[in-house]
Amino acid sequence: MNPRDLAKDGGEGVRVATARRIVLATFGSLGDLHPFIALAKELKARGHVPVLATSEFHRERIERQGIGFFPVRPDLLDVESKPELFRDLMDRKKGSENVIRQLFMPSLRASYDDLLKAVQGADLLVSHAVAFAGPIVAEVTGIPWISAVLSPISLLSMHDPSVPPQAPWLRHLRMLGPRFHGSIHRLARLTLRKWTAPVQAVRKELGLPPGADPLFEGGTSPTCMLVLFSKVLGAPQADWPPQAIQTGFAFFDDVHATGMTAELKQFLSAGPPPIVFTLGSSAVMDAGSFYEMSQAAAHQLERRAIFLIGIDPRNRPREPLSKSMLAVEYAPHSELFPRASAIVHQGGVGTTAQALRSGRPMLVVPWGHDQVDNAYRVCRLGVARTLSRERYTVRNAATALRHLLDEPNHLTRASEVARMIRTEDGAASACHAIERVLSLSVP
Asked: Of 292, 383, 422, 425, which is most buried, counting CB atoms within 10 Å of its CB?
């Protein structure tokens, strides 16, 4: 079978008779890690030997799931210790460029060397779009390779145009159609190609010919691309690669190791469902005045509230909170979100997925990257409202939340969307596709 026929088969997959060693390469926040842990756990349950190749920062979280780990640079421990760097990485206009140019490109050759060791003896490589060494390692070694994307903005479509963080005004121009957005994409490619120039330098150093743009065709496996988000967030488009297989979200939450504390459970049981305020695992390191504004907005609404503030001491309340509010470092979204009245978050795809599955209305306050596009997508679904970071004031937050909480159509629509997402099993569907690729390759 031609591997491109995988997409036509709908990802049904075939069970592979023998256990295979499968390397899963990813980088980034928990939103980038958790879907790959979900795949690894499903592959292990099917008798395979998955290995997660990523930053040393995530080692403990991976190994306590009983999943093999292999360190690949860059090490995000270096980023966590530099709050000023987080500001650059989360900047709305230049954050994505800074992530690629300041974090990934300087470590590209080291990433290649590490990942080359990780795939020794492996039968398959699955790599995240930002694991830029993945396509190079696959080309050098000839290992079967699957690429993966986590959010719609990674699949530029002129039929379903995304909203880049640098130009949120483009959301008003959706009606101009494919020809207009196709021209916008061509201009974007010219700019983005400069960000990944070191990829071509490494290819030349390794004796490889110049490759396609690593943010587009050069980062897409010709055999199979896993689209690890729900059709609710972004439906398949005619200009997606023909080998793309949409699986739905691959959910994972570390509930056994980092479950809800007794204090949190007691708070939830002591009154009406609270508003939950969170900034995920990246924006939380550059929170600014978000939690102060949120506390004041909840007070103005006379609503109970929970704040997930992370480990950054700057996010801790300056004054003791009232009995109607609670601040905790972290709580599993899959357990907490369904018990909320509304969720205020930054719009990262992992947080967005959990919020959609919870069936609760949301207010999205995007920082950058894919978050702006995700925010407008959930607004179009009728389950959310959005405020830019600059417009997130006490008054604006309270007004938006009042609409979400007082208009029952938001909760009704959120419940409908949640039911659709719960019918999907992203991890199982992705592993069906992975096993079909394995069945086509020589053991």
From this structure: 383
